[in-house]
Amino acid sequence: MKRFFTLTEALEAAPADRPFVTAWIDEDEQETVTFGEFRSRARCQAAVLRDQSVASGDRVVVLMPQGIPAMTTFAGAMMLGAVPAFLAYPNFKVEPSKYRSGLAGVTANLGAKVVVIDEQFPDDMLGHVSLGEETRLLRAGNSKGSPEEELSFRTNRADGLAFIQHSAGTTGLQKGVALTHAAVLRQVDYLCAALSLDGSADRIYTWLPLYHDMGMIACFMLPMVCHVPVVMQSPLDWVMHPEAMLQIISEHKCTLAWMPNFGLQFVPRRTPQNRWAQYNLSSLRALINCSEPVRASSMDEFQSAFSNIGLKPTALQASYAMAENVFAVTQSDLSRPSGPARIWADREQFRISHRIVPVTKETTEAVCFTSSGRLLPNHEVRIVSDSGTELAAGHVGEILVKSDCLFEGYYNRPDLTAQAIADGWYHSGDLGFYLDGELYVIGRKKDLIIVGGENLYPQDLEEIVATCPAIHDGRAIAMGLYNSDLGTEDIVVVAEVERKELLARAEEIERDIRSRVVAGLGVAVRTILLKPPKWIVKSTAGKPSRSATREKLLKEHPELNVDSQEIPVV
Amino acid sequence: MTPEAQQMIEHIARLIRKPNLPIDENTPLVSSGLIDSMALVDLLIKLEDLTRKRIPPGKVQPKDMDTVAKMFATAERVGKPRR
């Protein structure tokens, strides 16, 4: 691959007539732009932004539905040397006032010069929104720049900020990860080599949201820099019709795709079996499971469902990735004949001493782990105990990452940056072990809830639950519990009622909690457990303790603990 | 209420496993948090079966599936004959 100094330089070098993005709506409605057309649309957007006095270094928030206009606006901002960030498009379930306050908070932290929205953006989501005096709202499509206009791109420097990607879906605690052109290009270089990417032969399929690193890096920046065509649908269209993935890969002969773990169960379970034979997945050379953790059972389910329609036994691959490292830390070896490495370990040793003692596959109660692959070049990991001591191979601890792709810090949040990086090592909050050159990620130390690939902070949920008048203030705990049927976590809320008598009105209170959470965050709570006062376990500091409450809950409600690989407390 | 709408209501009742919760054609399902987006696909497949139509992805948003009445109106609006 040719070396570039900036992302915009890489876009400029792409062959003009090669298809870049195909936006797939349904079989009768698709739009494809070539790299040349994409560039010229991005230039128009750059001219529009420049007319709004956007200059090098200014932050631009892009709030548009997934599609070509959102991508050209983003690239246009980069052409000016501005620093764009995608934010999630409002979900109709979220109450406008909640959405507005979240948006105001994020744009204030970014100090955004312009927020670009699309023509259909719902007015009630913006009414009276205070974006700060310095921030302007721009409806894309209002004014057209001239594509012929020459713009100078010399403002971009390799060590300058390229864009900001956010590390979680919920707005309250959203952290903006600031990335330089150089860091993103190094990551793309490593991935390109690890995947033997070929712009003239490969084609990426994606439904992943662009405001998330998997969608942003693997399915926008990587193809933009390596000049690979992408066929894209929106996350909502995919979740409502996952069968479309099989159709798109078959019709467009896609070779690469990334997915969170749950997708591997979701697609076969939600596509009627009598329609599988219509499709052909033989073009797919890698479908990369990018989750913490990667689950063997989900991969096996996808493999056995679709091996009859051409899915190669080596197609399912794995990677460990995070927004703070641009994207991937590891990638499984695509040339390994049997897919990512697996190891079977003694269950007792794993649970009690947090050690991996390999056993044979047939051993009773053996626990199976799937590797996330080998480290990318210039990447290091350390596994540490709670006290920070480095652990030997085969011991479970927190994963720390050091690399030349690591982020510059959380935008405008030196406090959070200092908590996350110490001596150049990023504390991932994920648990795992390193063995025989492979990294195995087994779960999370921090309390993040991941539902359908989207990250949610329990604090955001707890704050909303506590606004319910029947719930004792501050006495609610939210957690994610693995649902093996869905292959992702369910949101479970346990909350104390103000007075014991209120338990008689449990159904009404549950309904109130559900509607408050959906209005605030746009997500549905699977299970709500109402408890009498003083049920939730407090920490020594007098605050509700998530881990101790979780343990108590699982003891009292064994039906909730469907995951046989429940993560030990390390 | 049409027999198809009644069948859809029974399907939803089984899906959310809340036998005591009354659901009618106008009960909000998605915006009330009773159904999450990952369950919408089940409702779309059921809707295709009940209406004997093909409902193209990309033409339906979750808000079009918020109540049983809206689901059938959506199928009427965007549904295509089956291939």
In a nutshell, what does this entry contain?
The complex is a heterodimer of chains A (570) and B (83). Chain A is of the alpha/beta class and 570 residues long.
What distance separates the N and C termini of chain B?
28 Å
**Oligomeric state of the chains in view:** heterodimer
CATH architectural group of chain B = Orthogonal Bundle
How many structural units, i.e. domains of chain B?
Answer: 1
Spatial shape of chain A: globular
**N-to-C SSE series of chain B?**
HHEHE
Estimated helix fraction of chain B: 40-55%
CATH topology of chain B: Non-ribosomal Peptide Synthetase Peptidyl Carrier Protein, Chain A
Mean pLDDT of chain A: 89
Count of individual beta strands of chain A: 27
User: Could you give the distance between the termini of chain A?
Assistant: 42 Å
- Give the CATH superfamily of chain B: ACP-like
Helix-and-strand structural type of chain B: mainly alpha
Number of strands of chain B: 2
- Main beta-sheet annotation of chain B: 2 strands, antiparallel
Strand content of chain A: 25-35%
Domain module count of chain A? 3
Mean pLDDT of chain B: 89
Can you tell me about this structure?
The complex is a heterodimer of chains A (570) and B (83). With 570 residues, chain A is an alpha/beta fold. Chain A has 3 domains: 234 residues, Rossmann fold (3-Layer(aba) Sandwich); 122 residues, Roll (Luciferase, domain 3); 111 residues, GMP Synthetase, Chain A, domain 3 (2-Layer Sandwich). Chain A has 15 helices and 27 strands. In chain A, the strands form 7 sheets. A 9-stranded mixed sheet of chain A has the order 2-1-10-9-11-12-13-14-17, sandwiched between helices. In chain A, helix 5 packs across helix 6. The radius of gyration of chain A is 24 Å and the shape is globular. The C terminus of chain A is likely disordered. The longest helix of chain B is centred in the middle third of the chain and has 15 residues. Chain B has a two-stranded antiparallel sheet with strand order 1-2. Chain B has 83 residues and is mainly α. Chain B is 48% helix and 5% strand. Chain B is built from 3 helices and 2 strands, in the order H-H-E-H-E. Chain B has one domain: ACP-like (Non-ribosomal Peptide Synthetase Peptidyl Carrier Protein, Chain A). In chain B, helix 1 runs antiparallel to helix 2. At the A-B interface, strand 1, helix 7 and helix 14 of A face helix 2 of B.
